[in-house]
Design brief:
Length: 262
Amino acid sequence: MNNRPIWPQGIGRPKESSEAPKHIHWNEFLGAAPERPYAPGYHPFAWRGWLDFGTGALGDMACHTINVAAMALELFDPQSVEVVDSSGIVDRETYPAWSIIRFQFGQRGERPPITLNWYDGGEKLPEDKRAFKDLLDGQKPSGSGLLLVGEKGSFYSQNDYGAQHTLLPRDKFKDVKEPESTLPKSPGHFKEWVEAIKANDPKKALSNFDYAGRLTETVVLGVVALKAGSKIEWDPIAMKAKNNPDADQYIRRDYRKGFSIR
């Protein structure tokens, strides 16, 4: 569950265009995206909500919000991803104002199949769509967080970064002591990144490419499902939607002239 978007989504393209300000190199900003005239509303922050430029609330925040679950439960290479419900994509321009997306994961080693449900939209998400509220043991939901529901109890992280958590039901776990950390404490992601470069050791960065690339792939498959408007059955080896060849256009885009990859 996530409080994004905190930028405009669920809207159409601006009706009026204008000259880009001198400090914005509009052609370079567009990059590989299809050409369009500049208009107020894309900068400096709101580009996240546009299909051509960003990946919406899901692509912007899920790598943070679900990271604890992904690392603990190996949430990579989902079998399928589907949009359960959303406010809809307006004029093929911006992501929905709110959405609910379901990821299905198969057997992963000794881990049984599992389902991940993503909710975004914050206060725009209709009250009757907030099924997660009934699983919080009477607690008031935070603006963003992660809830892991198990057979014997639940783990609830009240923010996007896993910095705080509560075991539910509270009465059952009130005497449980925190286990000792098994992961090294990060000096901060910028310093961690620089130290990994200096040591030529990617593993010094906990969210290195081997990990972060797979997590990003999991997340943005939800964006593919949103754009395709259908369930995606994923083939991680071929990097294709097995059930929907039309989804390929959202997996690999056509690059605008002058910005192709050679």
